[in-house]
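## Example record

The block below lists the input lines for one assembly entry, exactly as stored, with component labels intact.
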Amino acid sequence: MVTQGTTLKSKEELKERLSRPEVISGSEILLRSLLLEGVDCVFGYPGGAVLYIYDAMHGNPDFNHVLTRHEQGAIHAADGYARASGKVGVCIATSGPGATNLVTGIATAYMDSVPLVVITGNVISSLIGSDAFQEADITGITMPITKHSYLVRDVEDLPRIIHEAFHIANTGRKGPVLIDIPKDISAAQTLFKPVTEVSIRGYNPTVSPNKNQVDKLIKAIEQAERPLILAGGGVVYSGGHEELYEFVTKTQIPITTTLLGLGAFPSGNELFLGMPGMHGTYTANKSIQSADLLINIGARFDDRVTGKLSGFAPLAKIVHIDIDPAEIGKNVPTDIPIVGDVKTVLQLVNKQAKRADKADDWRAKLKASCEQYPFSYTDSEDELKPQWVVELIHETTNGDAIVTTDVGQHQMWAAQYYKFNKPRSWVTSGGLGTMGFGFPSAIGAQMANPDRLVVSINGDGGMQMCAQELAICAINNIPVKVVIINNQVLGMVRQWQELIYDNRYSHIDLSGSPDFVKLAEAYGVKGFRASNKEEARAVWEEALRHPGPAVVEFVVRKEENVYPMVAQGSTIDEMIMGDAE
Amino acid sequence: MKKHTIAVIVNDQPGVLQRVSGLFGRRGFNIESITVGSSEEAGLSRMVIVTTGDDHTLEQVTKQLYKLIDVIKVIDLSSNPMVARELALIKVNAEPAARPEILGVVETFRAAVVDIGTHTLMVQVVGDSEKIDAMVELLKPYGIRELSRTGVTALNRGNAK
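Predicted structure tokens for the full assembly:
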């Protein structure tokens, strides 16, 4: 697998060499600036408008570029890299179709606040606006789905723009920043002086919270009889998981984490209630509805969590801790708003936080509820159940793998049955729900964590949206274990059509998909298939032992549904329990 | 639904108008009028936007605007005493016989005739939006051929706040 084996000393030497003021091209400025930002891996795809940039890469031993097979694969890989490492993910594409192929990936990252710097080429400045060959207004197209974007007009601005882009992407509420570089700018020569300072007048995220609001939170905890923490992706992104653990330990307040918050708190802890929302646990959803204090830490009250807004947490005083002031009060009226970085806020809160003493009955009640209503399914000895497959993966990896998923039923089963204990171990497209994300994001996660086991759980639908990236796993020996839970159907759509559209199954049949084992082998990746428990355990363990990438197809029946389920428009305590009913 | 007049101080950058107007569009905020021009400081432009919505909407508009990197400051002008002005050019049918009557209206409104055609007059009127609405109403019976309004620009009064 491709890695940068640089020692500390050689890193210093590299930095000094890169920082030397020299007359170089815009392309070389780009590469040097990326290296100076600490970028050790870039995913991309060349084309006409980025030829100078790719020419600068030629024979450059410092710069590590992974050639994907589709720009969509490149940006999802960069996204997976960022989510699994906390560093900024970077990808490069050419103008026009190259750039537009990134759009889904940019929107995916934007919805889930993932820091990316996206580099696109554009046609020569003088041709912009003339409908030139492979021209697309990518800054215009991506304006609603980027945190910020730049169209570079002068090569002199390039070092500053790149430095600003990294700063904006990875501070405040993180997100994707796009830099569009016309071809003449990447060719133009100028004296390179690295930029290390950043000063953006209109950009100054609030990190430290208002003390009075923190005091109010402390008081609210003292008074609460039924307090509850709802923690989200913001905990992971701020690196505040240890502070969260301390907060929960001190206050002994039960906690539920959103889909993106999984791993922010150890799931084995007795105060952990599981995930809330549409496919959340019975206890998490019920507890939100009866809590008298709901402390939202870095979650954004997404509709998949809240269900029917007007009936959400009807008895609770709402506290909302968020780096983005626009999230506070956007969906749910808030009693105690706390704007700030989660880690910084919790450090301050923890200085004063005490055990919530009035909540003993509540704790006991929720603990009993968790025992009474765990996630459950009817297992079978004759056929494979997808939930059992996820439990097998959890058991054989000791809950210690980085798990990426695609979108749909398998995603929910992975969230329900893989028990996460560490942050940045769970990579999933929550906000946008992007099919095709699961597998390429695992490639990025693996590049960022060469020494960890990365398992990508996919359905047979989403796998076919980015399967071409199997090539780069084989070529670069990226040892991702690709799981395909094959139910021969678009399972989540099938589930809705069964339950809400009266069994009218419309265009969900995926039978006739390729033989995934042969598909893997066609790319030079080892392929396995299992249709029963015995085979499943045997091939999965063999795949884990295999040193390189592997595709493991688990054939399951199509009729399995994800439960509990809250129908759209219902309050979250109106759950369809399925088999457990 | 209340009408709000807000000023948005932005970096004078290409695309900044698109960023601001696009944000209003995609978040479902209404724009009644928008004006843009230079401000008292080089490199910064001042936009004045008239929008409608309840206080929750105004709060969201403000917070979302602040998320744009090129937005420096957002001021809710209408929460304090302000001067808000708009200019309109109205080309109205004016055969010689009707002209004295029209000129009477123009004079009363302290408006001005800025062009005379064979069959038309062009009237320029400056004032708050209600004044311009009233002027337009009065000229309608003569037949308005073309109408162009600048949209509101505004500042808070010197002794406000």
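Chain B has a mean pLDDT of 96. The two ends of chain B are 25 Å apart (CA to CA).
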